[in-house]
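thread: overnight batch results

M.L. [08:02]
morning all. the overnight job finished for the chain we discussed friday. pasting input first so we're all looking at the same thing
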Amino acid sequence: MKKIAFVLTLAAALSACGGGGGGSATTPSSTPTDPGSPPASYVEPAIPRAYSVAQQCVTPRASSILDPYTGQPYGDVQGSLTAEKLWIRAFVNETYLWYSDVVPLDPALFTLGASAPYVDPHDNSRTQLDLTTNFDVVDSYFNSQRSLLLTASGKPKDQFHFTYGTSEWLAQSNSGSSVGFGFQVELLASHRPRNAVVAYTEPGSPASANGLQRGAKFLSINGVDVVNGDAAMLNEGLFTPNAGQQYTFEVLDPGSSTPRTFTMTAGSVTSTPVQNVRTLPAPYSNVGYLQFNDHIATAEAQLIAGIKTLKAANGGAGISDLVLDLRYNGGGLLDIASELAYMVAGAGATTGKAFEKSTFNDKNPFRLSAADTTIPFHAVAQGFSTTQGEALPQLGLRRVFVITGKGTCSASESVINGLAGAGVEVILIGDTTCGKPYGFFPEDNCSVTYFTIQFKGVNNLGFGDYADGFIPGGSGAPANHLKGCVVDDDFSKPLGDTAEARLAAALQYRDSGTCPPAKAATGVARSLAVGTPNQPLLGRSPLRENRFLLPKRRY
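M.L. [08:03]
and the structure it wrote out:
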């Protein structure tokens, strides 16, 4: 399968075989234009119900390909791009939280060989895209079906509208498997002069085998200079490598003044979402540390095992404090977020309380009752990767230190908000979170899975207004300004090292209630350079910036 490249920044999709037509890179034209308002002559016809035009595909899937949520074939029939676009319009009109904000464009503008309008969800910048594949057509049309309004702070109201190839979405969400090398990239500057470093590596991955460590700086990929070179190869090598292809990396390891070069072959890498579970060395032996990177299905069993380890620490006495490191956790399954929050707080704080309540549009698109829209604090495993119904271990803590960053998003923010709503004191150490109190049900049509904002989540106290993120260093008023410290990320030390700047700050705050002096952490400082704006590095997949309710929860 050939991946679809992101368009502009983080907004478009990584995909394969989608829209009935496979895929290739979608590239903006060199001269951006403003698509403006739809022509006054366009009068939208009546919109059908989505179910009536579903799975009418340019390239139907074989009946042997089963929907994992139903165990049945997808039911694809021969259709057309027109039918696929009609389904997109109907799906958004029925389920999108802000459906009344959508200004419909003539779907005829989006056809093979055309140059169609595209609006970047991250900044509402406008350009034209050449539509060369069937996937380009449906992806660009789907992009047009969203709110272009701004929040009070000036951010686009909807920054989280994207698509994924269904097979790739299932692989990554259920098993954590994706094509790559096993390193997580942190972009300290995405524009020229660029700065990209290793945030962490996956155990047993090619990156780990080649000795890549946190803080290693990427200098070139296949001879292309990372700082100022053409972005296409860099984006491919860092974020969307082709399976089986070799890539040559030049890196500068932390503490070294001499670059080194090595070659890795891209392949399937399975992530380990829970890492570095342990109690800290004396004098902090009663403090637990847990690094949590992804709310994917496999995380359930790993989180349970990790909490059991901390509960059994110190001869069974357990821990008195927990540092939960979510700095690189972009979200995922809300049910797993609920499980984690329950295991941290325990039954005493959570019984009878809602972890998150979801508000949908006024059409009640998923036929949900009041009970259906409430996620409790799960006291038993939901069966993603362990036995369904298994009682979850409890730490019973009344406060938790959470290490955050700009990549802490969505379901991770739900952990923070849910705990705060249950009366647990949440102390933030690091940076403001991404600000995404919204989520969706992934929806497949014709081999593409569509993600459009369908609900807003609030905690047991009714709070969910954190579109500008949770901000450390406040007093709790307003509710998204939580106690804690603003501390830059420190790439000079391994994650979980008590000398690493953010963990050290958490321990200092625990001991004294004070923060370290406001200064950049040792290690690699974040560049504020803007440089040339038309060739950014992409950053991580949008799949790692979201919260999901799986289809099985829909009815």
